[in-house]
Amino acid sequence: MTHSFHHRLRGTLPREAGPRVFAVLALLPFSAAAAEQSGPNTASAGTPGAQPPAARVIELKAPAGTSLKASYFAAAQPGPGVLLFHQTNRTRKAWDAVAAQLAASGINTLTLDIRGFGESGGKAHDTLTDKEIAAARESWRGDIESAWRFLVSQPGVKRDVIGVGGAGYDGVDNSVQTARQHPGDVKSLVLLSGETFLPGLLFLRQSSQLPGLFVVADDDEYPATVDAMELFLNSNAPESSWSNSGPRRAQIRRDAERVLERLGAPD
Questions:
Q1: What residues contact residue 138 under an 8 Å CB cut-off, 6+ apart?
Q2: What is the CB-side half-sphere exposure of residue 15 using CA atoms within 13 A?
Q3: Tens of pLDDT, residues 177-209
Q4: Which is it for the CA torsion 254, 258, 259, 260, positive or negative?
């Protein structure tokens, strides 16, 4: 089930709900953000009968020249844009069905293989040492910025109405960090079963007006993820309470407040 607090949708879904349910739910914050930016005489991007073209595979260049593969799902008419990040054990193709539905609804969507994943260049991520993984994550910032610049440069993309979504440990953190880098342009977040670090926690805490959908499965393959998501959701809006709150959730909320009080201030 999902729970709504202020400008955010939060809660849990069973794993069998699958990407189709997620795609439908994902439309909510992205479409809401687009509607807020549209004037009363602006036609809907998702005009009935307007079919978007097939996805286009593109090659991007990271700052150091690494080749990055991405898929661009253009909407049939001008509208908002969305950038989607895959989780550590997936590639951009895991988003194909969701991206196609978003494009059919009038939302231009870009999916990216981070370096070391899928068809992008770089040493395969699953062969990296812990030290190499840390270095690779630093390089992802440039990869993501290349994808961002491509998306906002496309004809028909309203660059001031951009949504960001991600799944898993890395997809969620990459989404939050992208929103941190472009706070004026990112109008919504969709985060699926992942975590973020202290800078991301602080950003979310300070961005309570940013519409977001946060989803985690009750039977997540990494059980700690459920608690981790609740931690940063509650740290983002400590004034909010869960409708099914109990001693465990209350403790998570108190822990989140302590984390942010003791571990630092916004950078």
A1: none
A2: 7
A3: 999 999 989 998 888 888 887 788 788 878 878
A4: positive
Cβ-based neighbours of 197, under 8 Å, separated by 6 or more: 173
Q: Give the strands of the sheet with 212-217, arranged side by side.
A: 2-5, 8-13, 212-217, 186-192, 157-167, 79-85, 108-112, 67-73, 56-61
User: Domain range spanning residue 213?
Assistant: 2-38+46-262
CATH of the domain at 88: 3.40.50.1820
pTM: 0.76
Q: Are the C-beta atoms of residues 114 and 140 closer than 8 Å to each other?
A: yes
Beta carbons of 160 and 136 less than 8 angstroms apart:
no
Alpha carbons 198 and 237: distance in angstroms, whole number:
15
Q: Are 249 and 242 in contact (CB under 8 A)?
A: yes
Closest of 172, 107, 182 to residue 148, by C-alpha: 182
Within-domain flag for 267: no
